[in-house]
Input
Amino acid sequence: MKEFNTTAVCIPSKHYMVDLSERVAEIKKLVDAGKYFTINRARQYGKTTTLTALKKELSKDYIVLALDFQGIDNNVFENGATFSQAFARLLIDLHDFEGVKIDDRIIAMLEELNDSDSKRVKMDELFRIIKRWLIANEKPVVMIIDEVDSATNNQVFLDFLAQLRYGYISRDTDGIATFQSVILAGVTDVKHLRSKIRPEDNHKVNSPWNIAADFDIDMSLSEEGIKGMLDEYETDHHTGMDTAAMAKAIREYTNGYPFLVSRICQLIDEDVSKAMDQKAAWSERGIDEAVKMILSENNTLFQSLTKNLDYHPKLKTSIRSILMEGVKLTWNPDQNDIVQMQMYGLIRNDHNIVRIANRIFETRLYNLFLSDEELKQNVFSREGELAKNIFIEDGKLNVRLILSRFIDTYHEVCGPLEEKFKEKDGREQFLLYLKPIINGTGNYYIEAQTRDQRRTDVIIDYLGQRYIIELKIWRGERYNTEGEKQISEYLDYFGLTSGYMLSFNFNKKKETGVQRVQIGDKILFEGTV
Output
């Protein structure tokens, strides 16, 4: 029986996975056109799985050298000689153990190079042998190198790329035999390596990989692709799930990040379905349970996310402002921190605005920033924890009571609102109050489209129930009426009949507390601080 996989390579015969045939066909077009390019995506983004499928498809028309630099020792990059000898061994191993067709005469040359005194070996000798092999081949050769990140801090790797660059340029001008295509895969964008390794060499501004074609193929998993994977699972297990609805919900949480898609499905299959029947597990409630588990994990993906943020403190501050204050950060491809964070998969370009890559990352970051505040012994988080039990009635949240108690706590701690109050303060304090109440049982996220200086919608998923709370600054009756209309439309989208509003109001004659308001066929509970 197949299973969902979140470690190493996904294999179609063993694992439920999204069909990659269209993506592979698009990449093959680049290879057929003789392009050299880099596939740089964040960790656990399905690069190796894609390369495995690509290798199988390319093998029909090409000889494929599929190498992995992850298995090479660091001392190999000490100089050009040790690297050339290690590379020769990789080619010999492909011939001996993986059936790659390399002429015996070429193998003998590679073995002689490997056995030579390293002090006498030059990298151009390795490339002379490769050229002889390429000339003799009936089929063109494609070279794929995975995990190039392990090599990118070494000057010898740049020298290797320079040799490939020379061959690429000379193949058309001088007719020199070279690879049909070279594909480098990893997290790092190899185009920027020159300045990274030799910043003092101002006259050497060109990267040896500036020949690379742009790789714009979408590596995320589409809603249609996720549905196809779930259809296959449903054929085997007969859970009764609505695969289209499930695919849509999973895509909304993950934005198609391959690891997160597979992890949600894996947790539902292996853990959530043990706590509830299969039909309930393979529903939006099951997704909520799986997401809750993911957010509590200390996996390598989240470790990488926080580590990279710590390496870029200015961008970390900017991201906190985006999430907690609704600040809009303009996308700038010349801003190094932004480029780096996109490369690591943390952010994306959404119509020239910086967005967090997906909803799960957003919630993880909210939790991180709120925890920073909790460590300061924030009274709001303590009050929410102490009063937690009174807000749960028959497995449902009493959000009206949450709003009422928060308003009382706010007035006790902060006193009356003052003009210096910033909306982020109220937003942050309310989330600090809410988080311990739902922690361990429910999830929350902030609707990205409404997170701005005027309005924030907090969506809570709690034991299969959804609650929507709009947070806003009071800006008069007209604005409030517009807000009521907006949240009413938003409730329609989620199929809900009741919602909640929390306004921070500076009017001295305001009436604080929570009121019940009828808006058409919807009921709103409007709280005023």
Remarks:
- The chain has 20 helices and 14 strands.
- The first strand starts at residue 37 and ends at 40.
